[in-house]
Amino acid sequence: MSTDKLNKTIMKNARNRVFLYAEAQEKAINEQRKALKKNKEPKVKRFEDVEGLFYSISHTKPRNSKTLYYKTLSRNHILDISDTTPGSPLMLLTNNVRTNIIESFKGPEFDKRELQNLVKLVKNMKTSNRGLKTALNQLKTIAKKDRDTTTSTSVLKFILKKHLEEAHLFESPLINSFSECDYMVKFWGPLVEKAFKNTSIIPHWDDTLPGSLLTLGIKMKMDLRLIAIDKNQCEDHGYGEVAKQCSVPKYFKDKRKAVIACKALLNSIITSNAIDQEKENVFIPYLIVMGFEMHLCVIHLKSNNFYITQEVKKIAFPSRLADLGEESIELADGLLDLVAMCEAIKKQACRGKKRKSMDDCIGSTTVKQRGYGTSKTVWDNVDEHELEDEVSDDDVDDADDDDLDDDEVNDENDEGDNDDEGNYA
After folding, report:
1. Does the predicted model carry a pTM greater than 0.85?
2. What contacts 144, CB < 8 A, 6 or more positions away?
3. Is 409 exposed, middle or buried (0-12, 13-18, 19+ CB in 10 A)?
4. End-to-end Cα spacing for the chain
5. Is residue 12 classed exposed, middle or buried when 0-12, 13-18 and 19+ CB atoms within 10 A define those classes?
């Protein structure tokens, strides 16, 4: 081998060794960085029981509407099992505890509905103007006239007419200008009214005060109350909040109001009627509407002083022709579920109190025999303007409601509200 060739080989090997060394060094540095980052990450405390979780969150200072929602629910012994975001109360439980709670909770069950003809018609319709008109005419010829079919047909006809006669409502520039009231008046209000048309339950809209909270000295405006009239008295059977667009602060603010109002209503129904919680479940429904989307949720007393709230169904008003078939059926079915829950509450709320037994009179009835206990309804009187939320147009529009909530809330004797004892298993 010539001297020049030998020198080139030596130089090449030297460069390769430098590259290999640099690569190994870079890999070592990256591993050190990962180790340092892992050590700096705060360890999240996991709770073995719900009591400890509620106590811990109840004594924290809320930074924003989301953490305020967590604190208010914890003070009321309520766990939201639909919220699986990092840092939520549910996710702060150990895996075993969280799994046991979710698996042991049985949400509301609904009877199977015979809507095959409607489903087939809507799924096979064409989304052209001619196709929508044909589907609308076919809906008018539906022979079966049971209540579920009648209600679903009415809902579907309303949706089709919106797209046929007022298609401009679904254009982006106009949608961006919609207010909260636009969504109530143009879309959700008529649909909810149609759903309850053949029932004895009346939707009451716009800044209405829940009776379940007034009796506790808490004055809070709600966008929707579902009211049943019994013996010349109006009784609430569910609530709803409406926003023109989705934002995190607005979502948790509205849900906080709805959950607490529903807990107060649930307590009232359980304590005023002969209901065996071990054999019969009471689910109070509430709606969270944001634009064209709706979440149908419930709250339920799972065990002694332990409440669960859960999202039952997500439904949407079909604003795009491409989604018209599937979303229309899901919307009609979701509204029928809402009606079914309200009617179940009406039956449960008409029984009256159970007569005292001899054991009750002499005080020998055990806690287990008495059934599940309810905890006091608590509302956190917090100036929401001081929270570190990103302000959206919807939050600005809702500022008047915020002032009312804070000024008129009467949260008496809130010291020691978390001293309630109960079995959270």
Report:
1. no
2. 114, 117
3. middle
4. 83
5. exposed
Q: Which amino acid is at 144?
A: K
Residue pair 221/407 in contact by the 8 Å Cβ criterion = no
Rg (the chain; Cα; Å): 28
Phi, psi of 238 (to 5 degrees): 165, 165
**Over residues 330-352, mean pLDDT:** 87
Characterise 395 by phi-psi region: left (phi > 0), alpha (psi -120 to 50), beta (else).
alpha
Q: What's the whole-number mean pLDDT along residues 24-40?
A: 71
Average pLDDT in the chain: 83
Q: What is the pLDDT of residues 354-373, one digit of tens each?
A: 555 555 556 554 444 444 68
Six-digit token string for 172: 């982006």
Cα–Cα distances (Å) from 273 to 77, 188, 269, 350, in that order, read 22, 32, 6, 7
More confident residue, 48 or 29: 48
Both tokens assigned to 332: 């009609």
pLDDT in tens, 162-181: 999 999 999 999 999 999 99
Q: Say if CB 290 and CB 319 are below 8 A apart.
A: no
